[in-house]
Design goal:
It contains no helices and eleven strands. It is mainly beta. A hairpin with a 4-residue loop joins β7 and β8.
Amino acid sequence: QVQLVESGGGLVQAGGSLRLSCAASGRTFRSYAMGWFRQAPGKEREFVTTITMSGVSTYYADSVTGRFTISRDNAKNTVYLQMNSLQPEDTAVYYCAASPRFGPTLRYEYDYWGQGTQVTVSS
């Protein structure tokens, strides 16, 4: 079992930055690829980014490439999402998730989910 707790969400103006954190419980954190998804009101939950178990490889949705950066600290059982140049369309609840697979980008590939943290970007 892996429990995930996100933090760092909030309200920011367009063009601003936020850093989300996701703390994982358990000793097996390094055995999971970690990902971030987001869900805007009335929309499906969508893939944002993922990082492999070692942290060597990352993958991003086209909509966030060049603006968002995922990283992880296996010693601290934590994954981060640095979000720069935020836009109103980035407004959503952001979820972190854990997957035993390599390079997972689909919801069903993730076994564990956090409760989400709200990010609101004002224009």
